[in-house]
Write a structure and sequence with these properties.
By secondary structure, the protein is an alpha+beta fold. The chain has two helices and nine strands.
Length: 127
């Protein structure tokens, strides 16, 4: 998946209030990237941000580590994300990182989701 650093940074900032700092379930330290969305949950509240692009196979992205890395990259850089079971690699220009993650099927399901559209308009949809 390719995305502007600025866009991914903004999406992570939107789900940040839901990403737990001290999770009871370790996999919730990550966000789920699937179906063109980033999903985050603290097991009480779930939020999804629509990225507007197809991410291919679902993968987890460690929230705090990825946010820290993106903070130090130019916003105009194109970031390539490749998720594999247990890892995700980030590459932009001459910089790259491989991060360990949990398994996608460990990420908790959630029945109701607030969906935010990145740089378009805000919408809320509950199931």
């Amino acid at each position: 998946m390719e995305i502007l650093v600025e866009d991914l940074r903004e999406a992570l900032e939107m789900v940040g209030p839901v990403a737990p700092k001290k999770p009871t379930l370790p996999v919730t330290e990550s966000v789920l990237v699937a179906d063109g969305h980033i999903y985050a949950t603290n097991l009480e509240v779930a939020v999804a941000v629509q990225l507007g692009l197809d991410a291919g196979e679902p993968f987890l992205l460690p929230f705090r580590t990825a946010s820290y890395i993106l903070k130090h990259m130019p916003g105009s850089a194109i970031l390539t994300l490749n998720g594999t079971p247990g890892t995700v690699s980030l590459r932009a220009g001459h910089s790259s990182a491989t991060l360990r993650t949990g398994e996608v099927d460990e990420f908790p399901p959630f029945p109701g989701v607030l969906i935010l559209r990145l740089r378009q308009y805000w919408t809320a949809r509950f199931w």
